[in-house]
Specification:
With 87 residues, this protein is an all-alpha fold. The chain has one domain. 61% of the residues lie in helices and 0% in strands. Helix 1 packs across helix 2. The longest helix is centred in the middle third of the chain and has 24 residues. It is globular and about 40 Å long.
């Protein structure tokens, strides 16, 4: 998964020579499919592991951050790729 993640990031992140425009290209590059697929495949298990070991305070932080992110996606001018998405 790490190699797929890194290959995808090189195509996506401007600081690595990539661009978010890669998602508009057709056909979608196999590196992007693997990158996105890996994120979806591993996130549920990661969440489960973290959820079981973290306390209620941490869960509340995640809940508030999630609600804020959903609200931001509804704003005019929202950019889906940005460093502001990190908790």
């Amino acid at each position: 998964w790490t190699s797929a993640k890194e290959a995808g990031e090189k195509l996506i992140k401007p600081e690595l020579g990539g661009s978010d425009k890669v998602f508009e290209e057709r056909p979608i590059k196999k590196e992007i499919k693997k990158h996105c697929g890996g994120r979806v495949e591993y996130l549920p298990e990661l969440r489960k592991m973290l959820w079981e070991e973290k306390g209620e305070e941490w869960k509340e932080i995640v809940k508030v951050a999630t609600e804020r992110r959903v609200e931001e996606t509804q704003e005019v001018g929202y950019l889906s790729l940005g460093r502001n998405e990190v908790v």
